[in-house]
Amino acid sequence: MSRLIPHLETQNLSAYYGATKAIEDVSIIIPRNQITVIIGPSGCGKTTLLKCLNRFIELEEHARVEGKVLLNGEDIYSPLIDVTEVRKKSGLLAQRPYPLPMSIFDNVAYGMRIHGLCSRRELAQKVQYYLQVAGLWEEVKDRLHAPASQLSIGQQQRLCLARGLAVEPEIILGDEPTSALDPISAQHIEQRLIELKQQYTVVLVSHILRQARRLADYVVFMYMGKVVEAGPAQQVLNHPQHERTRAYLSGEF
Amino acid sequence: MGEYGLLMNNLRILRSRRAKLDSWVRRIFWMFSALPFLLVLTILTALWLKAQPLLLAHPLSKLLLGEAWRPQKGEFGFLPFISGTIWVTGVALFFAVPICILTAVYLSEYASGRVQRLVKPLLDLLAAIPSVVYGVWGVLTIVPWVEESVAPALGRWGDICPIFASANPTGYSVLAGGVVLAVMIAPFIVAIAYEVLQTVPAGLRQASLALGATRWQTVKYAVLPRASTGIFASVILGCSRALGETMAVLMVAGNVAQVPRSIFDAAYPLPALIANNYGEMMSIPLYDAALMTASLILFLIVLALNIFSILALRHVLRESE
Predict the structure, then answer these.
(1) Which of B177, B184, B91 is nearest to B142 (CA)?
(2) Are B212 and A56 an interchain contact pair (Cβ–Cβ within 8 Å)?
(3) Which chain B residue's Cα is nearest to A165?
(4) B115 — contact with chain A (CB < 8 Å)?
(5) d(CA B287, CA B290)
(6) Nearest Cα residue in chain B from A54
(7) Do B211 and A101 touch (CB under 8 A)?
(8) Which domains does chain B carry?
(9) Hey, how many other C-beta atoms are within 10 angstroms of the C-beta on A38?
(10) Does residue B218 belong to the interface with chain A, where contact is any CB pair within 8 Å?
(11) CA B181 to CA B94: how far, in whole Å?
(12) pLDDT per residue over B45-80, tens digit each?
């Protein structure tokens, strides 16, 4: 409870697709070095909220955002902020992995290259390091220059994790990152995320309650575009304050 | 029990009738779908048979590489026409490909949905303009432009760079044909390249953007490499359209049976040869067979290119699933 230092914060955040309001008046904090899991029934705005955190919402046609998202106290929607910088600070794990059409090595090196993060000599070292952090190094060290598409889907997701970490983000965003994976691969990813919270802030969207119980330090429960309840996992998952949260947790919808 | 047996019997009859009808319908549909394939085979065979007299009278190498076209003397060298086709098509691709790919990338990756919905139908409209209209436009606009502006300007470099040498006083040339063709094939290349780009999953773009890449970096490193096979196929399809295009080229390319040495030389592409001469001078021995040979050459090239691009596009579709 004492470690709740906000890393990200939303203030009166609303997002619209055309005339439809997807999320409304969301004001939450995302605590630093913890795993925050956003839960709620499908269509409640979980993914939209996540997309607001790295300005991916802007890729949708007719999408509009009101309110603020503060990263280290700075509004990422401010016109003074470069959107690529915002995205660089947050690694994204999508529902299914999308390796870039290049080799395993180049996938991890991609972000470092486009941002000019390190010299050519350091590159190989760093690629190895991030593949190790993602728990993939042992499986791919002999075929680093094979196309990434040859990996299994579970390996691809870990590759995407390594690729995201390589741009040295502060935050890892996961949009149901285990939903396309088999149980063993999913466990791999969960294990990595638990390790990574030492250095990163993790935000996950999940529709699996058990996963939320396993991983979450902090929970945000959403319903119909609004945040019903947010707080430390112990509190929200075990002693929910709101009727709706209780109903959702007991599997009523 | 007896009634039940009767009912089952009727049902069986009904069922067998339905089955019979079904199998007939299937056969009829199969026949119609087989028709295009048969047609291609028939045309190919017919051209082959009709070309036989010439193919038997002269060795193939002499026909394909011969520069002299004097039907009255029995000399049938197809090189002027083959090289004319290649020149005109090459110039067309030179102009069309970069512009088309950039247009397709812009439409697919940068333009808003509204612009896409506006521009796409316009492009399809361009594709629907009859080629003779393009031909007239070429005669009225491009040919004088080549004659009055381009040839005098670039002709000065002719000594250094022979492809700019300007010996032809008119604008009817490889360049005019190429420019008109480029405009004609552009809508096709753009349309197919655009469709191919649309098959690239949004998740792939997002993967790159999420790493803080700009749109251009995303296009360059993620989208284009993924779409490269399909874009190549779109270029090949455009190329095969250019090879076969007749009317517009015939009107502006000059139609002189020579091997062009410069973009300002007149050219005589294969389709123009066939269209201009079939039905005339048929009394000359082997002339008929020679035109059939020209058709056969054209047909085989275009067929090969089309098969190639269809296979490539199929590969793209399979990969995007």
Answers:
(1) B177
(2) no
(3) B211
(4) no
(5) 5
(6) B210
(7) no
(8) 60-320 (1.10.3720.10)
(9) 29
(10) no
(11) 11
(12) 999 999 999 999 999 999 999 999 998 888 899 999
In B, residues 26-65, which contact A (CB 8 Å cutoff)? Answer: none
Q: Does B210 touch chain A (CB under 8 A)?
A: yes
> How far does the CA of residue A161 sit from the closest CA of chain B (Å)?
11
Sign of CA dihedral B187, B189, B193, B195: positive
Nearest of A193, A232, A196 to residue A2 by alpha carbon: A232
Each residue of B186-236: pLDDT tens digit? 999 999 999 999 999 999 999 999 999 999 999 999 999 999 999 999 999
Partners of B213 on chain A (C-beta within 8 Å) are 84, 110-111, 114
Nearest to A23 by CA among A15, A31, A34: A15
ipTM given for this complex:
0.88
| β pairing state of A6-17 and A63-71 | antiparallel
Measured distance CA(A205)–CA(B264) in Å, rounded: 64
Q: Does domain A1-89+196-253 have CATH number 3.40.50.300?
A: yes
In the predicted model, what is the mean pLDDT of residues B10-36? 87
Say if residue A2's pLDDT is above 70.
no
The answer to whether the CB atoms of B213 and A114 lie below 8 A apart is: yes
- What digits encode the pLDDT tens for the residues A67-125? 999 998 889 999 988 999 999 998 899 999 999 999 999 999 999 999 888 888 889 99
If you count residue pairs, one on A and one on B, with CB atoms under 8 Å apart, how many are there?
69
Q: Which residues pair with B69 in a beta bridge?
A: B76
Ordered DSSP codes for B71-135: GGGTEE--HHHHHHHHHHHHHHHHHHHHHHHHHHHIIIIIS-HHHHHHHHHHHHHHHTS-HHHHH
Handedness of CA A213, A214, A217, A218 (dihedral sign): negative
CA angle (A64, A66, A69) in 5-degree steps: 110
Q: If pLDDT is split at 50, 70 and 90, which confidence band does A1 have?
A: very low
Would the pLDDT of B93 be above 90?
yes
CA distances from B224 to A59, B120, B305 (A): 19, 20, 22
Residue in B201, B210, B226 closest to A87 by CB:
B210
In angstroms, the CA B82 to CA B88 distance is 10
Tokens linked to A138: 């042992």
* Domain positions in chain A: 1-89+196-253
